[in-house]
């Protein structure tokens, strides 16, 4: 169990070191007291809390259809798969999930902006049919750094997220000379869906600084918030906290987000400490990634904790598929055999639960 000093517990607005998330392989230490205010256009805490109270308790998963290995395979015209999306979101609805977190990609927009937005609208129509709201994610620093359009790679046997791609990739995410090329993408998508009630939240940047980038991701993060704030959609804006070594990133994210989003794959006692300190912001809390069974972050011990504190609960993974996220981050199985315990995911590809007791618990906790 990690230790927190009493000074940090008493003073830190952003709290303590969070767990590694997705690709990070080392646990982090540190934290900082960040006593400041955000931009003038940021929602007030009162507005953020009123928005949150008007919604049911948000529960769900990070979603990509089982037939897609990454964001591009999900959104490209040739591989967009509404039938699988419909089927799998139906399974999610059946256990009471009401929110999915879904990653976009700028390359799919760049190739065909109108077609991309139509497919986003098609997805939203399917999700809405199943009474599911959506958190859309723009940029992402995780996994493979060289995204490209066209046919995507086949999964590497037994390897977690072998085909997931960064957005915009590396070195593009570090190169300020390229940033203005991303502004039309963010502006167009936000403007087109600014008043769409089917969208719950815009998650502007997933795990900035991951893949060894660190503070080099801060300029793109700043620009993305500026572009989004210029549009100022009806939905709140956020970027999730995930690595507490990144003081500059954490400060910016927390003080510019309308609602506080974060990732935590740790056991309950640690997760509860994180909640305690993030609550000092006085804003709604949304855990946009959790649940890694071998790390003792499980539905049985984390989901009741999140409900107790009225923290929205979005686990990683819905259906076992081409992302291979039933395998652990750093424990590949070269023969592709079944892991002793699934890392992520709720359902098998035939719609049966990986663990019936988990889906029964989810149903119980999400019942009205």
* CATH class membership: Alpha Beta
> In percent, how much strand structure appears in the residues?
5-15%
Fourth-level CATH superfamily: Glycosidases
The order of strands across the largest sheet is 5-4-3-2-1-8-7-6
Structure overview:
This protein is an alpha/beta fold and 368 residues long. The chain has a single domain (6-366), classed as Glycosidases (TIM Barrel). 33% of the residues lie in helices and 11% in strands. It contains 12 helices and 8 strands. An 8-stranded parallel beta sheet has the order 5-4-3-2-1-8-7-6. Helix 8 links the parallel strand 4 (199-206) and strand 5 (237-238). Helix 4 runs parallel beside helix 6. The chain is globular and about 45 Å long.
Protein traits:
368 residues, alpha/beta, 8-stranded parallel beta sheet, TIM Barrel, 12 helices, globular, 11% strand
Layout of helices and strands, plus pairs?
Blueprint: H1 6-11, H2 45-53, E1 59-62, H3 71-75, H4 82-94, E2 99-103, H5 106-111, H6 113-129, E3 133-140, H7 183-192, E4 199-206, H8 218-231, E5 237-238, H9 247-256, E6 260-263, H10 268-278, E7 285-289, H11 299-308, E8 312-316, H12 356-366
Parallel strand pairs: 1-2, 1-8, 2-3, 3-4, 4-5, 6-7, 7-8
Helix pairs in contact: 4-6, 7-8, 8-9, 11-12
Summarize the structure.
By secondary structure, the chain is α/β, with parallel strands linked by helices. It contains twelve helices and eight strands.
């Amino acid at each position: 169990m990690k230790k927190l000093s009493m000074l940090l517990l008493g003073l830190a607005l952003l709290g303590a070191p969070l767990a590694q998330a997705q690709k990070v392989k080392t646990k982090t230490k540190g934290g900082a007291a960040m006593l400041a205010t955000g931009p003038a256009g940021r929602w007030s805490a009162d507005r953020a809390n009123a928005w949150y109270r008007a919604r049911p308790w948000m529960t769900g998963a990070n979603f990509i259809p089982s037939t897609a290995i990454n964001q591009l395979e999900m959104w490209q015209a040739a591989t967009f798969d509404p039938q699988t999306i419909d089927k799998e979101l139906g399974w999610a609805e059946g256990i009471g999930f009401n929110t999915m977190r879904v990653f976009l990609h700028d390359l799919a927009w760049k190739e065909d902006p109108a077609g991309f937005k139509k497919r986003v609208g098609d997805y939203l129509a399917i999700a809405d049919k199943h009474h599911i709201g959506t958190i859309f994610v723009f940029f992402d620093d995780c996994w493979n750094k060289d995204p490209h359009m066209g046919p995507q790679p086949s999964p590497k046997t037994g390897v977690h997220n072998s085909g997931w791609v960064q957005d915009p990739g590396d070195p593009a995410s570090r190169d300020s000379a390229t940033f203005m090329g991303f502004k039309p993408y963010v502006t167009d998508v936000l403007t087109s869906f600014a008043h769409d009630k089917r969208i719950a939240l815009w998650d502007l940047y997933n795990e900035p600084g991951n893949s060894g980038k660190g503070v080099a991701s801060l300029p793109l993060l700043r620009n993305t918030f500026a572009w989004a704030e210029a549009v100022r959609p009806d939905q709140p804006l956020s970027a999730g906290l995930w690595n507490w070594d990144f003081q500059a990133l954490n400060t910016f994210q927390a003080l510019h987000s309308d609602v506080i989003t974060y990732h935590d794959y740790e056991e309950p006692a640690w997760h509860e400490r994180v909640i305690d300190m993030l609550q000092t912001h006085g804003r709604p809390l949304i855990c946009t990634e959790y649940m890694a069974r071998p790390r003792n972050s499980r539905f049985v011990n984390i989901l009741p904790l999140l409900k107790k504190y009225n923290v929205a609960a979005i686990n990683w993974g819905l259906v076992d598929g081409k992302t291979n996220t039933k395998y652990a981050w750093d424990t590949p199985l070269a023969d592709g055999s079944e892991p002793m315990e699934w890392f992520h995911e709720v359902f098998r590809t035939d719609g049966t639960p990986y663990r019936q007791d988990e889906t029964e618990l989810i149903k119980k906790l999400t019942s009205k």
